[in-house]
Amino acid sequence: MSRVHGVASEHRCVITRNNYRPWGAKLSVSVLNREVQPVQQSQVHQWQVHKLRSEEVLLTAWAEQSPGRYVLTGRWPRGHAFYRPSRGAYDPMLLAESVRQTVPLLSHAVHDVPREYRQAWEHFSFSVDPLASLVTTVDEEVRLVVTCSDVLRRGSRFAGMTMDIEVHLGERRMGTAHTRFNNQPAAVYRRLRGSYADVDTALANCLPAGPPVDPNRVDRLSPDDVVLSPVPGGAPGRWMLRVDPAHPVLFDHAVDHAPGMLLLEAARQAAHAVGGGSSAVHGMKTHFARYVELDAPAVVVAGEPVPDGTGRRRVGVSVEQHGVRVFTSEVTI
After folding, report:
1. pTM of the predicted structure, to 2 decimals
2. Which domains does the chain carry?
3. Which residues pair with 158 in a beta bridge?
4. Which of 7, 70, 195, 211 is the most exposed place for a label (fewest CB within 10 A)?
5. In this structure, how many other beta carbons lie within 10 angstroms of the beta carbon of residue 17?
6. How does pLDDT run across 104-129, given as a tens digit for each residue?
7. Residue-wise pLDDT tens digits, 276-291
8. CA–CA separation, 199 vs 171, rounded Å?
């Protein structure tokens, strides 16, 4: 018995032009004996996904299926302290965080990007199937099938790419995602960011977090996990972005700006606030225009939910800083 693509099978016959014979004639048989090797998986190292806390690493292994196509596997905790299940389903932000971890992983592991390089989202979207997202009693593997395109290089340096991702939970296809990101050397990043590139200075100048809105209004249990703060005067559909650099998940490691996952969480909470705290998020389309700085107020603005014709609603959310729109999102609830 031989093993082909990692699956045990009987010896297989290969018929070629040279060994073809008419029906009834003797057939020359070539036996495949480990001529086809299984896809080699590589372990995901914690530093490759830019996480300091090991329990926040969602990806465990990756393999190149074909040029530009990769299969990543992982596990989603059913009892995550921040991305907790809701209404019997996994938090869709686990999908978003898995994609975020895919960005540095493929940059480092496939494109040999040094550790000190910085990756930044340009745009990101995802959608989930609520029924396929249900938490079961079985420990199910998460599988991301990633197709890369529009790979940009500046000379020999990897500078960014687009990824289309299918997300499978166990045997179920539970969601899709699409994103593009750029990759900058440390020296280029310092030139782009100027004085903001110094992490210690940026954190020292971070504005204190304001009081949280009612956690129930944004589908949260703890005030510590609320990222929206009331604006003076209580204008409807407007909040201050609440930044807490001590948050163990959103600020797993020190950064010089508001992390992308914090902005996604702000969009999600704003959509809950205007759509009813019991609403569920089924997808997002986001654009990252500029870095959101820590030393200046940022305003989160949400419009009224609009029916999308499928029984769901869409909420436009933006973040403004210094009078400029720096982040936009369309949240489907």
Report:
1. 0.88
2. 1-38 (no CATH), 40-192 (3.10.129.10), 198-333 (3.10.129.10)
3. 153
4. 7
5. 5
6. 999 999 999 999 999 999 999 999 99
7. 867 899 999 999 999 9
8. 42
